[in-house]
Design brief:
7-stranded mixed sheet; alpha/beta; 18% strand; Rossmann fold; 5-stranded parallel sheet; single chain
Amino acid sequence: MHPRCHVPPRRLMLAFTTVALVSAAGLAQAQSAPIKIGLPIPLTGPYGAEAKDQAKNAELAVKEFNDAGGLAGRRAELLVRDDKLNPGEAATRTLELLEKDGANFIVGGLSAATQLSINNVTRQRKVIYVSISQSDAINEAADASPYTFHEALNPHMTTQALGHFVFKKGMRIAFLTADYAYGQEMTRGFTRVAKEVGAEVVGEVKHPLGHQDYSTFLPRLQAMKPDVLVFNNFGRDNQVAIKQAADFGMKKSMRFMTPILTYTARVSGGPSVYDGVIGGTQYFWGIQDGTASAKTFNASFRALNDGRYPSDYGAMAYSAVKSLLLAVKAAGSTDTEKVATSLRTLKYDTYKGTQYYRGCDQQSVQSVMVIESKAKDVKDPADVFRVIHVEPASEKLLRSCQELGFK
């Protein structure tokens, strides 16, 4: 060795010790750092009521994980961001969550368009994303990734369960459709069911997202003389459109149906608006008498929220975060690959019965409920729906992997 390259043994030992101490400190810090879950949702805009309830339910899932000791003492943290129901905003907020806030995982997206935008960001960065909004596109091979999981129902599942229960041969079906991915996918799904059962689709009228005045659309729909008028819209749009159609007297000659009949819209809109309206949902708190996990979930949520029951879309956020953290615990790690593998093999019953993620598209296989809004003489103001049919969890409700583009 050249004399100038010689390092005294004591100095070399100190250098090695310093490196070891720094490495150990970094490892300890990583092992004690919070598990950060980003939640981009539309807190402002026409879906705000559903989004705020999703945040409350996601917080419950995080609290339960932390109260149970977390991951060997490592606690979870929820980072809620407002995506304003805008795809560009959703992408920006997701990017900030990952690059600025250091989120380990992303859950959220209460719109078919925003969740696709979020998914574009997460799959490029190989980050786990659990979607909690209805979309058919996110299940297709073009938007799939090993890190994208879909906890929500999708439009095909919803329309299959609801359409086959309501539509009969010879019925006339018309659609009032929000003109974006969610509405379009619902129309496509119901049209498919109508063809399968021999019902006739007599027409469709489209409206922009966040519309307030449907008076120009309703006469066109009434002139179609449908037996069933399907409102393929959501949130505030759904509530306003159904109210105006009822005020127009259309309930007298046709049945009102909507693919997703939400608890928040029904409570806000009131019994007279939704009286007799039939729809689909993945959850209603009233199933607690026959489902142990629903009873436990309802009690936990009510204890933290002044006795209020959880909503359907809120429950979905709870289940998404809860199942994600179950997978983290099973993996014993926050490593993306390990947690993704854990999610793929997970059988979970978080709030309504057993669910699991199908292999090809990582769609949660689960039950679908057909519900009807109760009349105004209901004694309990929270007891707003009657569950009239439950379609059991089955892959038969899903489009085939081949149809989705998987080989």
